[in-house]
Amino acid sequence: MPPDEPISPEMKKGSAELLILALIEERARHGYEISKLIASRSDGALQFHVASLYPLLYRLEDRGWIEGRWVEKPGQRRRRYYRLTPEGRKVLARQRSVWQDFVRALERVAGIHHESSA
Questions:
Q1: Of the candidates 38, 70, 75, 78, which lies 20 to 30 Å from 106 by C-alpha distance?
Q2: Strand locations in the chain, DSSP E?
Q3: How far apart are CA 71 and CA 118, in angstroms?
Q4: How many angstroms separate the first and last alpha carbons of the chain?
Q5: 80 Cβ partners below 8 Å, 6+ apart?
Q6: Residues 23/15, Cβ–Cβ less than 8 Å
Q7: Can you give the pLDDT of all 118 residues of the chain as single tens digits?
Q8: Secondary structure (3-state) at 113
Q9: How far apart (Å, rounded) are the C-alpha atoms in residues 97 and 100?
Q10: Domains of the chain, each with CATH number or no CATH
């Protein structure tokens, strides 16, 4: 269930790269699928619309963190699938570490606790 208070655009912006990199770590995905997975896995708390998602995907590709390729399947429109590059894997590992430290600091300072999925 989504929270009563919407997540601020600043918080979404700060986590967007991590979310995208983590989702394509599993396997190559197209933008629409990435958007839908973010929404479903966050129970609707996080939503990225095409207008904001695709420019971010292009920036990540320009940085060399992800690689996109066009795929055509019979009966479907052409889609660009993105996969993580070796550099993107390194960036994802660093970002995960930074976010873990950030969450721990919030716990200590603000008394915010999260449920671990591990």
A1: 38
A2: 29-30, 66-71, 79-84
A3: 35
A4: 21
A5: 30, 31, 68, 69, 70, 71
A6: no
A7: 445 666 666 666 678 999 999 999 989 999 999 999 999 999 988 888 888 899 999 999 999 999 999 999 899 889 999 999 999 999 999 999 998 898 899 889 998 776 665 5
A8: coil
A9: 5
A10: 10-107 (1.10.10.10)
